[in-house]
Amino acid sequence: MNEHRYRWRNRQLREHVAVVDGHVLPTIVLTNATYLNVYMKRWMQAHIWIYEDRIVYVGDKLPEQNDTTEFVDCSDQYLVPGYIEPHVHPFQLYNPHRLAQYASQTGTTTLINDNLVLLFLLETKKAFSLLEDLNELPVSLYWWSRFDSQSALQDEDTFIKEEQVLQWLDHDAVLQGGELTSWPSVLKDDDRVLHWMQETKRARKPVEGHFPGASVKTLTKMKLLGTDGDHEAMTGEEVFNRLSLGYSVALRYSSIRPDLPKIIQEMHELGIDRYDDMMMTTDGSTPSFYEQGIMDRCIEIALENGIPDVEAYSMASYNAAKYFGMEHRIGSIGPGRVAHINFLNAKDEPTPHSVIARGKWVKRDGESVDGNESFDWDEHEMGPLQFDWEMEDKDFQFSLPLGLEMVNDVILKPYPVQVELASNEVSTEDEAFLMLVDRDGEWKVNTMLKGFTTSLGGLVSSYSNTGDFVLIGKRKQDMKLAFQRMKELGGGIVLAHEGEIIYELPLPIAGMMSDEPMDRLMEQEKELKRIVAEHGFPFDDPVYTLLFLSSTHLPFIRITPKGIMDVKKKEVLFPAIMR
């Protein structure tokens, strides 16, 4: 069966009905189950019949005992719908396949994924082929359709074409348009994106906003232009404002914005006690943040902060399914739904001991069931990076009078550069050389970065928002050494210091992603954090620093493929130069 929005074929539907009539045997029967009925908003008792990948019956009847059906006694357990992560960035060092494997073990059986990296790396037809092959997982993977690059590209006008956007919006795996990081341009005069927003509405799919700190007036305008949801509320008041205007709100608990406990407390203070239009998200957190769980951890926080259990589980399942117009397929335990079911020891313990995804056991009594198979990325032209150019000494010439100063992990402000730039190393305590270099070796942007390190010789990363190369360091020779090692690896994050390679994280999937299982990748990321912290990194999330250096949806200044850019004015202050 083709998972996405497609219906089951007529023959399959007849088989499903025949199961209820006793003419065909169910695959699995969950007996004596106490389960969450999201429609009645109460815990109920029933026997649950599963046939292949679908729940076909929930009620008080049992089929005759037989040797074909698997009967599972669920007494003293609590069954809830498989969790839905509505806002996933599946390329944060991990890849969609490994993330989905890991997510299923904590009960998240549906992920709604950002397609931005696929727009950078693959033609549309090849991207759709990848989507189909990823669909072989028991986890349900759906996607967004992006309208902008989230940076300033040299070929911005050709990066996303009309035909490409419409093809993505028409795909049955695509559930929404957005997220809308280019909303200031839409408010001003960007009729191209506004047109795509309207095409999204025509397809009966929601438009996801990205409105950090937006006023009620701005939220009202964007509602008029067609936006349906937003995940950027950082206070209870911002949640209140969005709900009051008819937005669906995803409450965030992420590695750079772990706001969920505070938001819930402030919501209670404002008297918010209706949760039907709320979801929760981890918003593309970095790997080690997920050691504590994914949606199960969000539910746990909701329960700890006074949200009723029925509402907390619905926020992580049915509410998201309803928002995306998919409640007929996912988000509940009921006849006709895909068999995504979590088995809990207690109502207040949202991490499941067992998980069924699309009718298959993926976790049983605390143990993974065949959960570590690999995926052939080479088949989809997403193998290791291969390029035939080198970084030369002349590339390491710095002359810009304006640098970037870190305010936190992701916010940058401009500062006047006063250090001597002709030398081979930076003598001041917290300044370093910074370069963004085209993946194809055609252009570069050289400036200074203040606040990243006090001593690290060189860091090179093929992981970035645009897929171009980031180089940071106190010494040019260490930067060059790290670059050469990154090239040998076929992509990755490499640290060099005093002429030696001191750390490497291979990213063999297009230079952007690891293919290690999540637990191994978590350890690798923690080691990266430890080393950069030893060299003076004062914040918490260096991976997001590398990702967002070129992201123009954040203030105040960015290093982009076009050059150093003033985000608010949308002006290139110092253009990129050809190599």
Automatic annotation (TrEMBL):
Recorded hits in InterPro entries, A to Z, give: Adenine_deam_C, Amidohydro-rel, Metal-dep_hydrolase_composite, Metal_Hydrolase
Looking at the record, the residues that make up the Adenine deaminase C-terminal domain are 418-570
Q: Where is the Amidohydrolase-related domain?
A: 78-362
Provide any one GO MF term from the record: adenine deaminase activity
Q: What top-tier enzyme class does this entry carry?
A: hydrolase
User: Pfam families per the record?
Assistant: Adenine_deam_C, Amidohydro_1
What EC number(s) does its UniProt record assign? Answer: 3.5.4.2
Q: Which reaction does it catalyse?
A: adenine + H2O + H(+) = hypoxanthine + NH4(+)
Instruction: Give the UniProt family note.
Output: Belongs to the metallo-dependent hydrolases superfamily. Adenine deaminase family.
Q: What is this protein called?
A: adenine deaminase
Source species: Pontibacillus yanchengensis Y32
Q: Which domain of life is it from?
A: Bacteria
Key words of the record: Hydrolase
